[in-house]
Amino acid sequence: MAQTIIEEQQSIGAMDVNEHAAQAIVDWILSNRYSFGEKAVGTCLGTISADQNKAYLFPSLLNDMLTREGYSPWKTLRYLAEQGIVTTKSKRDGGKEYSVSKWFDGRKCRMVEFDLSRYTKTVDALDEDEAAAEIQGEWQQAEMDTTPFEERDEELPF
């Protein structure tokens, strides 16, 4: 029984680390949005698809970021591939390649295809008013939750 508990704790801990690594990648992409595309400012990290659902990352820069943040690039990419977050290709020797061929700046290169749509939701400009109303509703709910009972219109719990 102890053996089973230890194995389950190790697998849960590994998933947490991998999910944290995936979120770190999303944060890195979103916080560096001007570093993507052919007109990138500073170091170009890759490109983002027109519908903003896929990010194409230069593998060496992604590996550097993961290493700098304390994550294992190999384990993280393997986990992301298992979850279908990054696209893989089978190698002739039976292994997996965690990158795809992509045209960028007039050249064909290898890039990691990361599925941003799993972590982010793009808002259509036509739906912007609805999104703003939804956010406003969340803020109002948060304000109501912090309003003292004396100022609320509802009955006191005691």
Explain what you see.
- By secondary structure, the chain is an alpha+beta fold.
- 44% of the residues lie in helices and 16% in strands.
- The strands form two sheets. The protein has a four-stranded antiparallel β-sheet with strand order 1-2-6-5. It has a two-stranded antiparallel ribbon with strand order 3-4.
- A hairpin with a 5-residue loop joins strand 3 and strand 4.
- The longest helix is centred in the N-terminal third of the chain and has 30 residues.
CA-CA gap between termini? 46 Å
User: How many DSSP helices?
Assistant: 4
Taking pLDDT < 50 over at least 5 consecutive residues as the criterion, the unreliable ranges are: none
The sequence of SSEs as H and E is HEEHHEEEEH
Shape: globular
What portion of residues belong to β-strands? 15-25%
- Total number of beta strands: 6
Largest sheet: 4 strands, antiparallel
Oligomer: single chain
